[in-house]
Amino acid sequence: MPSAPEPAPVSAKPPVTLREVAAAAGVSVATASKALNGQGRMTAETRERIRETARLLGFRPNSLAQSLLRKRSFTVGLLTNDTYGRFSLPLMAGVSDALVDKGVSVFLCNVEDDQRLGQLHVEAMLDKRVDGIIATGKRIDRHLPVDLSNLRIPVVYAFTQPDPGAIGLVSDDAGGARLAVEHFLRLGRRRIAHVSGPASFAVVHARAQAWRDVLKENGLAESEPLLGAWSEAWGHEAVEKLFGKADREGWPDAVFCGNDQIARGVIDALRERGISVPDDVGVIGFDNWEIVAEATRPPLTSVDMNLSTLGREAGLALLSLVDGQPAAPGIRKLPCRLVVRQSCGGPPE
Amino acid sequence: MPSAPEPAPVSAKPPVTLREVAAAAGVSVATASKALNGQGRMTAETRERIRETARLLGFRPNSLAQSLLRKRSFTVGLLTNDTYGRFSLPLMAGVSDALVDKGVSVFLCNVEDDQRLGQLHVEAMLDKRVDGIIATGKRIDRHLPVDLSNLRIPVVYAFTQPDPGAIGLVSDDAGGARLAVEHFLRLGRRRIAHVSGPASFAVVHARAQAWRDVLKENGLAESEPLLGAWSEAWGHEAVEKLFGKADREGWPDAVFCGNDQIARGVIDALRERGISVPDDVGVIGFDNWEIVAEATRPPLTSVDMNLSTLGREAGLALLSLVDGQPAAPGIRKLPCRLVVRQSCGGPPE
DNA sequence: GTGGGTTGGGAAAAGGTTTTCTCAGTGCTC
DNA sequence: GAGCACTGAGAAAACCTTTTCCCAACCCAC
Average pLDDT, whole number, for chain A? Predict the structure, then answer.
């Protein structure tokens, strides 16, 4: 007894070809192709019959053959040097998310900091005829160890230093810093210190400058940021510098930190000194690395760079480039957002 | 004045085809193909001339056309549901590392926990004729939300629950736990507690059982593990349970933790109680998540699951499957290693 | 000088799909 | 009933490479 017609299981040994569909439906491959793609002219009946046959046989067009002909592989490369990166991961997720619905798959290529590896990956992708490349990395102010400037396919840079004349998407670090400092001000804090990472990072300066700007705009005393490392240990050390002096009046009532690890160190060190967060001092971090931000006591308010949105935007930008839409080169900054937890307390009474 | 012959820049608009190389060298495409692939018979002079022409023109064979013919795309898919995962990242790095030298590129597919997304990605990869699939995830005891059991291409499972009859690679959690407990014993510790994650995780039981086994083998008193959450907060709580009793003689002199976050909580809580690590109590974590393990005070000794090796092995296993080498199905466990830092102290005098 | 072996290289098919061009038939108008 | 427009569908080229098969030419021995 024949069962109800339904698609054949994928397990059939060699994939079903269009030729087989055409034969089964009693038409030519040309007609079959047109029926399935909604092209050409034929009776609705014929088109439907072919479609039904294809469905029954579990036909799926061979992407390789399509790509060869259309000169479009529905494939892009994602180049990164951030192996274990908590930055590039959400970014990749965003890219993949933006593209999967359009049938575009993503080659992930980790080039470390190795020129040879970069070359290898780029050539492999070019050979496989990727439609475009997204370059990303662990630092916004460093180039990948690859030259992407003279490729014949479009390239979009996300969260990494773009080549001149290329399209780059980065987070708006200054804007993010403003968010943090202005949040402190709204809560009535007035003596806002800034503890950040090494001076060799561009983002350190961008954030510090914004911090200073907001203080100045509000007529508050400016001071120097404390620059050190991206570590908890540096957070501890900075607390010693800030709160070491006997004169309590000179103590800050808020600390804006360059990343969440520093903030964690700051919070821990403050607790060890018996200084209450958020009652005595408010703390804000940067990166919104949830696993850290949620483990601090109290949980940490932090600036989120919206990296997955950034990834989405990069994916979409690349796609429209691939489709031939011209796009203005230059760097586009995407806004950050503040994720409020409990390390700043509420507004003043 | 003509410059010295060198490969044309990649920037040339449409890629150079074999036909163009053949024309330039004055031979047929067949001969050109054979010359470049070391096939067929021809004078050494002819072969060299063709090769030189190809080099000059910057010819690179179109992978799409090759794949279509050879039915081998030099492409594999990596399926994961671990979006922000610190587990799957090193694993991916290992996979990619094992494959890039063989010219194989990796499609990264994040399926979240979404059946539809999984289906979408698998179909896209099948359409693109990937040679095989590696499935990985965030939990060793859970399936991905995709059915990979009847595909016509090989599948290898790494750090996720394999289908019956498939090939799976996982970490040897019991072995890793032994490493930790035996390290404590070598250092003269005798009262070794175990604080781990939720009972719903298979690895929790595997590690706890190994911990108990080693204690028994050494004639030490067994006790119940403390099961809770994978969090620092639970580490704090567990310290309260273990060290809350007045009787100091009942206190453990070592705590083996189910992951590094718990260990961090334990270390912090011990310090807050004035109990010294490692002098009074040794602590070992699991996962060797460097960013955590190196930030604890003192830095944390931890069990590393060698995930990037695991990824490498998975990549190689898949490749030999693709090459038609039969492989015995079943689960293969890869050894862990202990990374010694300063949270256990030295051996007894 | 004929038969057989070797050498260097080309013609053509194959892989699966899309697209352009062509063509036979049908129904309509004048 | 001739011309015409349109309809439905197929043939074949194209994408680029690999591989099998074939052929012409040459050399050698008998």
Answer: 92
